[in-house]
Amino acid sequence: MSCSPDWSPVTAPSPFKQSGTHRVPNRVYSDEALYAREMDAFFHHGHWCYVALECEVPNAGDYKATFIGEKPVIAVRDRDGSINVLENRCAHKGAKFCQKEFGNAKVFVCPYHQWGYRLNGELAGVPMKNGVSGQGGFDADFKLEEHGLNRLKVHVHNGIVFASFDHDVEPFEDYVSAELMPFFNRTFDGRKLTLLGYNRQRIRGNWKLMQENIKDPYHPGLLHVFFVTFGLWRADQKSELRIDPRGRHAQMISTRNSGGENKEVTAGVTSFKQSLALEDPRLMDVAVEPWWGGPTAVMQTIFPSVIIQQQVNSLSTRQIIPQGPDAFDFVWTHFGFADDTPEMTERRLKQANLFGPAGLVSLDDGEVIEYCQQATTAYPEGECVVELGGKDGGAPSPHMVTETLIRGMYRYYRETLGL
Amino acid sequence: MNPHALYALITLNAQYGDALDRFDFQAWKALFTHDAVYRAQARENFDRNLPLAAIYLDGQAMMADRITGIEKTLVFAPRFTRHIIGLPMLVAENTVRTPFLIVQTIGATTPEMLATGCYHDTLVETAEGLRFAARNAVYDNALIPNSLVYPL
Fold it and tell me: How far apart, in whole angstroms, are the C-alpha atoms of residue A43 and residue A305?
């Protein structure tokens, strides 16, 4: 298939009013034409997008229906143990033939005219191919092998599955970058994962705002009063920011301090509530795990489609499924490891109270993303100021008092879209 | 089920919805036993025996922490909820399923469906009256319209 984007970079004037990315035009969050270009350039061409965890489809024939950008796809475990990612689109009439989100199949059969496909996407057979009683049917030159399901390029990396519509996309480890692979491999080091379950929410904001949220270490100590008060995230904690050379992916790596008040980071922070204490400490009963190697939280943004969370004992992937310029679905898949004790599983489930649509921390993020969407849409000529830590275009940092990771993402954005 | 027990059960559910919709979370918490478990769980997890819940509160102290979150730390746009709780279906002694529909209204916008599903309850008779020993609000709509602030 073609891998060149089908838009031209010179068709629209850039909404950016100056060079650099320390100012981001409000229009990037609501413009329909820009959104169409983003879907094409980021999700549907040239990038590895998150699809699944292997533990979601453990047995031959197990499948998961999901999306890359706005395009429906299916991840299915083949008989040889490999995972195929196929377009969820019948080659005949274009029906989204698989309507169940999870299941097990020997073959995929489109219900409309019963075209049947093997688990690798090959068309196995079509009804009435040779006609009925000598009448009708397909021409003699109709070849089943020319009408299979479109098959994506797949990379399974120690239990996490990415796919790309581009068969000549760069190798996955190059895509993530040498800078970020060590911490990527820290979570996905080959241990068998176990699936704990899902949370899903529709956030009425532009999909990029969620990437920005997890590239923004400025906000957690201010917005998330729960985090601040109980010592889970503070501006004075030991931390490091990593970013790939192109600016698209990032990691926020930090080690929590013991809580309480540090005047420099809490003075003037109206959200700090010194007097609060948990009535049930089991809500945050943190147990240090040997594989952490120190850091208590590593938040990874793998552009454009996923965030990978380790916040103490809570682990999840957070998939971004855009729904037009002003909304996206956010799908949380919580997981643990096969050798977890029942106590560790219980801990992961209790700490999950901080995350997802009801999260004592994450709920704040979904809300403020909607607030950003509401006013940036109303004032499309305005621009956002992204100048904490300077005006660089995205660089690693030994501290968290910077918005450099967001500037990095928009450097990549401008370059890729030719803006 | 005898008529008195059914009356107590319907009253308990009426108190439950009323307490939440009036934001009286202490009254809500008081409808549970001390070590009761409250969950709000997507049906896709419940049906597949996946243990994750959006809200998982193990005992009244953890419920109190959730209440502190709602009242003191969480950031969210003001909203009303309205619990429409259906007729209880007695499944076994002290085990009940009851359908619900919860509508929310955020600011000066039109109401929207927040969740619909079924409470899976374990009940116990106490000196204070009938109480929840466990309530799992299993919601059919896996997709939540952004935020789940209050218990379902």
Answer: 7
Pairing, β A193-203 against β A297-302:
unpaired
H/E stretch holding A346: helix A342-351
Q: Does the pLDDT value for residue A162 go beyond 90?
A: yes
Q: Could you tell me if A246 and A409 are in contact, meaning their C-beta atoms sit under 8 angstroms apart? A: no
**Span A73-123, pLDDT tens digits:** 999 999 999 999 999 999 999 999 999 999 999 999 999 999 999 999 999
pLDDT value at position A196? 98
- For chain B, which residues lie within 8 Å of any Cβ of chain A, measuring from their own Cβ? 40, 42, 44-45, 48, 50-59, 61-62, 64-66, 68-69, 72-77, 142-149
Nearest to A367 among B53, B62, B76 (CB): B76
- Are the C-beta atoms of A255 and A296 separated by less than 8 Å? yes
Residue B122 tokens, joined: 């374990």
Question: Mind giving me the DSSP string for A227-243?
Answer: HHHTTSS-TTSEEEEEE
Q: Which residues of B35-59 are buried (b: 16+ CB within 10 A; e: fewer)?
A: ebbbbbbbebbbeeebbbbbbbbbb
A95: left (phi over 0), alpha (psi -120 to 50) or beta: beta
Chain B residue with CA closest to A346: the answer is B51
Q: How far is CA A50 from the centre of its chain?
A: 6
Report pLDDT digits (tens) over A242-284. Answer: 999 999 999 999 998 755 555 565 555 555 566 578 999 999 9
A242 strand-pairing partners? A251
pLDDT mean over A379-383: 97
**What confidence tier does B131 reach under pLDDT thresholds 50, 70, 90?**
very high
